[in-house]
Specification:
four-stranded antiparallel β-sheet; about 140 residues
């Protein structure tokens, strides 16, 4: 007679695939309506303006815009901020020597947004340089 019970069920556990949780859209990325921002267990990241939370604590976008993460009173929040159409994106290469890249931070109640704009600068025309001859000791001796 066997001294232990049969343990067939505990030895036959199968490997299950992961549930693909985590942050799906990071900060400063564009997002459209209904796209998932965070999949999580519990509310590690809370939904802010422009987002809603599902019954499994999934945070998704309710309006198109740009994703912004911020902390408030020690809690992490995510919100969707409107994308500004008037702001041009600065490229890695400088546009020309006649342009200047300007960065400005705008602080609102809910999030901090950073805008990058390219401003044109007027071309400066170089003035002709007058040539001046310096008198040296050798030129003064030659005249005497």
């Amino acid at each position: 007679m066997a001294h232990t019970k049969s343990q067939g069920k505990t030895n036959q556990k199968s490997n299950r695939p992961g549930q693909r949780r985590g942050i799906k859209k990071f900060g400063d990325q564009k997002i459209s309506v209904g796209q998932i921002i965070v999949r999580q267990v519990g509310s590690k990241v809370h939904g802010g303006v422009g987002t809603k939370t599902g019954k499994d604590f999934t945070v998704y976008a309710m309006r198109p815009g740009i994703v912004k993460f911020f902390t408030k009173l020690g809690k992490k929040f995510v919100s969707v901020v409107k994308a500004n159409k008037n702001v041009k994106k600065a490229e890695k290469k400088s546009v020309e020597h006649t342009s200047k890249i300007v960065k400005a931070k705008y602080v609102t109640k809910k999030a901090v947004t950073e805008k990058v704009a390219v401003k044109a600068i007027k071309k400066t025309v170089k003035k002709p340089v007058k040539k001046t001859v310096k008198k040296t000791a050798s030129t003064t001796k030659a005249k005497n």
